[in-house]
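Hi there, hope your week has been kind to you so far. Do you reckon you could talk me through the fold, stretch by stretch? Thanks so much in advance, here it is.
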Amino acid sequence: MAGAGGAGGSAAGRATRRPSLVTRQQVLDAAVRALVEHGYAGASTLRIQQLAGVSRGRLLHQYPSRDDLLVAAVAHLATARIAALGARTTWPADPGERIDAAVAVLWSTYREDYFWAATELWLAARHTPALAQALRPAERAVGEQVRAATDRMLGADLVALPSYAATRELLNTSMRGVALTYAFDHRPAATDPHVGLWSTHARAALLG
């Protein structure tokens, strides 16, 4: 049975919820920014609190654990970005052109803040068992979202091919590896020679 004020709740209840949602978004955005700008070691709760512009009590109320906060922040940003990619409905009808377009879009995701924030967590997890434990389920979920988004980009006709799954994994793992080199070797990513190689390989694997 609905409470007072109907399904939407009372005006006071809605007013109470809005600041909480705003605060959560501020905290998550600040956590990603802290990771990207200062690394895992520098992404302290104090720094996140300062970047978010919230009180320590409010930060700890939202996320008592720093590692849980950092993992949630990266997963939230990745999910939002992947959802935006999956929402695109116009892809070239020609399979080869569609492969080229999908490769370009996929590669662009490895230049997003969430990639570098996630990289900081992956490296830190090697020596932080609690972080690794918190990270595993979130990364598995994001991985499933990436695969689903890639499937939507390339279309049912290509997804149905026997060579598709291996090609999709090779594209994403190769892009991740190449993207890591940009940590120390800045260059125009849009004209990286690997982009042509990825398209050529995918076309050969999927179209023969």
Remarks:
- Residues 4 and 10 are 7 Å apart (CA to CA).
- Confidence is low (pLDDT under 50) at residues 1-8, 10-19.
- The two ends are 60 Å apart (CA to CA).
- The longest helix spans residues 11-42.
